[in-house]
Structure formats: structure tokens, C-alpha cells
Amino acid sequence: SYELSQPPSVSVSPGQTASITCSGDKLGDKYVCWYQQKPGQSPVLVIYQDNQRPSGIPERFSGSNSGNTATLTISGTQALDEADYYCQAWDSNTGVFGAGTKVTVL
Amino acid sequence: EGQLVESGGGLGQPGGSMTLSCAASGFTFSNYAMSWVRQAPGKGLEWVAAISGGETTYYADSVRGRFTISRDNSKNTLYLQMNSLRAEDTAVYYCAKNSGFIKKDGVDVWGQGTTVTVSS
């Protein structure tokens, strides 16, 4: 079955840039979405179609996808961005989530 | 944007059955694909199943043959029939609305989740 790999954790200082990677075989040939989940809350879509932001998502969130790796970038990270982030894609007729990355804003 | 409210969770027996429901409001339900996503205690998100507006269904390998996703557009309701329950099915189950093309556009509305515990 298809797998998406994410680093378990990423630490970033306030105001700096956080980059979260998501790796999978020929991932660049698929569309990737990214979700943010804070403790005790339902997930929130922050990026779809690799690099599109839903309405209401701040411009500091951006995405890219090429080759075997997709990346979610948070520019000018704020304390409120501290959360778990999950990438998600489809392989054939099955949806797949990455295991998630905990972003800590130090 | 819409609202989703799940129900039907609770304690289930190993090998038993349970049906989850999800009541949708605030959008034209029949126009959108819908999904179920679960999260085991302390774990990450796991995609479970999806159904298109045209009622094409998709399943994770872990539930295929045991779970059935369906929808009743006249009642604006999504269902997940779960049979042959296993301990590893224990999770919070989220109902979710796909924002557009099912394999491209992601889920833009999530319910609050309903908890399923499988234990004897």
C-alpha cells in the first residue's frame, strides 16, 4: 500500500520559517493537501491541490510538490501555528494520510 | 460553509456491528463527495472511506469488506455501516465534506467527531 512519510517533529522560532516535508513514491504526480490539527479540535484544511490556500487561510501558509516530496512552508511562524500537520494524497482509489508532524514554536 | 453532526458512536463488541450517521446542513449535500476519517487515541489521522456525489465508493484497505459508506441525499445524511468490528477500529470518527474533486481538493468541512470504542 502507498505510504506518505513525514518527520515526527519540527521546531521553529517565532517569526522564522517552518518547512514540513511529505515524501512518497512519485508524489509529484499526485495532488497533495495539508491539514492543521490543534489538540482537541477537528482538522482544518490549509493547502489543497499542492499549493492552493482555502479562503481564510493566512498567506504565510504555502505549499509545493515535485518529484517525490511535497512541502508545507509556514513563513513568519506565529505561536498560534503550533499544531500537528498532516499531508494527504490519493493513490489510485485510496486516500492516504501521512503520520503527521508536530510543529513546536519555541 | 456547512455543518456536519455525527452520531451513533459508543461501545461496540468485537465482531459486532455499529452504524454511524452524519447530518449535513448549510450546503447542497447531493453536490458534494463525502468522507469518513478516523483518529485512534493519541494517533494520527486515518482515511477510512469516501463516496462521490454520484455514489461511487472508495475504501481503505483496512476496512474494505467490513465497512460500507452510503448516503441519503433526501435526508442530507451520510452513513458508515461498520461490521466485524475489531479493537483497532477504536477511534474518533470524523464526517467530512470534500470541497470539490474528490482526489484533488481536500476536505473543507469537518464534524466534531463521534467516538467508537470496540471492547468486550
Short key terms for the protein model shown above:
heterodimer; A: 106 residues; mainly beta; 6-stranded mixed sheet; 3-stranded antiparallel sheet; 9 strands; 0% helix; B: 120 residues; globular
Low-confidence stretches of chain B: none
List the uncertain runs of chain A: none
The tally of beta strands of chain A, per DSSP, is 9
Approximately how much beta-strand content do the residues of chain A carry?
over 45%
* Rg over C-alpha atoms of chain A, rounded to the nearest angstrom: 13 Å
**SSE run of chain A:** EEEEEEEEE
Alpha-carbon distance between the two ends of chain B: 40 Å
Question: What is the 3D form of chain B?
Answer: globular
Order of helices and strands of chain B: EEEEEEEEEEE
**What is the subunit organization of this protein?**
heterodimer
Average per-residue pLDDT of chain B, rounded, comes to 96
Overall pLDDT of chain A: 97
Largest sheet properties of chain A: 6 strands, mixed
Helix content of chain B: under 10%
Account of the 3D structure:
The complex is a heterodimer of chains A (106) and B (120). In chain A, 0% of the residues lie in helices and 46% in strands. Chain A is built from no helices and 9 strands. Chain A has strands spanning 9-12, 18-23, 33-37, 44-47, 61-66, 69-74, 83-91, 94-97, 101-105. In chain A, strands 1, 3, 4, 7, 8 and 9 form a 6-stranded mixed β-sheet that branches. Chain A starts with 8 loop residues before the first strand and ends with a strand. The model of chain B has no long low-confidence stretch (mean pLDDT 96). Chain B is 0% helix and 51% strand. The radius of gyration of chain B is 13 Å and the shape is globular. Chain B contains no helices and 11 strands. In chain B, the strands form 2 sheets. In chain B, strands 2, 4, 5, 6, 9, 10 and 11 form a 7-stranded mixed β-sheet that branches. With 120 residues, chain B is mainly β. The A-B interface holds A 1, 31, 33, 35, 37, 42-45, 47-49, 54, 84, 86, 88, 90, 93-100 and B 35, 37, 44-47, 50, 58-61, 94, 99, 102-108, 110-113.
